[in-house]
Amino acid sequence: MKIAVVGTGYVGLVTGTCFAETGNLVTCVDIDVNKVKKLSNGEITIYEPGLEKIFLRNLKEQRLHFTTDLAEGVREAEIIFLALPTPPGEDGSADLKYVLGVAEDLGKILQNYKAIVDKSTVPVGTAEKVHAAIAKHYKGDFDVVSNPEFLREGVAVDDFMKPDRVVIGTNSERARKLMSELYAPFVRQGNPVIFMDERSAELTKYAANSFLATKISFMNEIARLCELLGADVDMVRRGIGSDDRIGKRFLFPGIGYGGSCFPKDVKALVKSASEVKYDFQILNAVMEVNEKQKLHLLPAIRNYFKDNLKGKHFALWGLAFKPNTDDIREAPALYMIEELTKAGATVTAFDPEAMVNAKTLIGDKIIYANSRYGALKNADALIIATEWNEFRTPDFSQISSALKNKAIFDGRNLFDLETMKKLGFHYVSVGRATIN
Ligand SMILES: NC(=O)c1ccc[n+]([C@@H]2O[C@H](COP(=O)([O-])OP(=O)(O)OC[C@H]3O[C@@H](n4cnc5c(N)ncnc54)[C@H](O)[C@@H]3O)[C@@H](O)[C@H]2O)c1
Predict the structure, then answer these.
(1) 425 to each of 306, 316, 386, 407, how far by Cα in Å?
(2) Of 77, 138, 282, 313, which residue is least crowded by CB atoms under 10 Å?
(3) Which one from 18, 28, 226, 261 is the annotated catalytic residue?
(4) Handedness of CA 379, 382, 384, 389 (dihedral sign)
(5) 107-142: per-residue pLDDT in tens?
(6) Closest Cα partner for 83 from 154, 169, 148?
(7) Model pTM?
């Protein structure tokens, strides 16, 4: 099939590449001239495990093209995916200016039937708005479909190639047939393609992300309680996770959720609810808990340094909001950096993939190290903000000889308490005993 994908970021590039991988002819459209130039020249623009290899293969096979010209990009396509940003507006609602802007442009361009598919995360009712924006200029036949994306950054290719489910919101038989055909190679193992109306599909995405964010905030509150009651959250986690009604995943406490999705999607769902005069109480609490959790280590750090962080220097491992991505949007590390520097401390950070993005966003607010051990030089203590695998089994003798104090503040519970005790570290983690 011939496909166009408008917006070539984390979702658009993975979507376009994976559809090309199953033999479709894909044109990706983006307004970012530099990005399109790089991609056309075979230079990948995001870090996503496994993506580069299939990106290069499909580029070489000429099944994958990039352009800044929307009209050219969609001319031949039967299906047009919108993978555009939906950032939070000032009031917390999803800002639809990119999606509706492109919809209007499409209205001026279309000349024959196309299925226009919302892959962006958009509030209930957006498919109708996209329809109206196109219909303002184009009087021919077309369908608007809601097909929310559930991929996780870090394992996006796997998630896309073998999705747990595909959700498709449409009442059009023609669009349903096209979408079934397109997704058939991805669900050969029998994972369901769930058809529904557009509104339910739109809400499904917000419900999924909000549920997962709730699970995280719930566990973070259990972790806080563990600290106060002298219990160990790792034990509690294992104790409840073995119940398959609860499940083992998403039960790890830490310094809060971040990224480009959970924070904005929870906020947007609360806002959508308030627009129909519904007070979504649980989600308000989820957001409040997460705000506090991002700075959960700070009181322990202040306490250790007798409430005086001025002139202290910290090594920070991890900038990305989670491992295996270079995405730093809403990363807890950034909140930590803000508070530490406000208190007069300085920070040297290391992240295996996210330093370029961090430099672009916060520049010389911090120093950037070339390696995890390089970050430790002259540091008063080590703070861990992201659970990259390479941080899990470090050489502790290098850590203790480089740090001025043998102190680790671990926001991701990477190390075993007994080991830390034996090695003589001051070790603070989340929901577990502090080792002095
Ligand atoms: N990142 C994720 O893990 C993820 C997962 C599921 C769903 N989503 C949703 O998918 C959507 C896209 O997210 P993302 O992370 O890929 O965003 P992104 O910011 O990485 O990418 C968006 C791209 O759209 C381009 N763009 C902006 N305006 C444009 C225009 N008028 N024409 C063409 N291109 C334009 C930008 O240049 C950018 O390359 C959002 O709604 C997000 O909530 C994201």
Answers:
(1) 18, 17, 20, 6
(2) 282
(3) 261
(4) positive
(5) 999 999 999 999 999 999 999 999 999 999 999 999
(6) 148
(7) 0.95
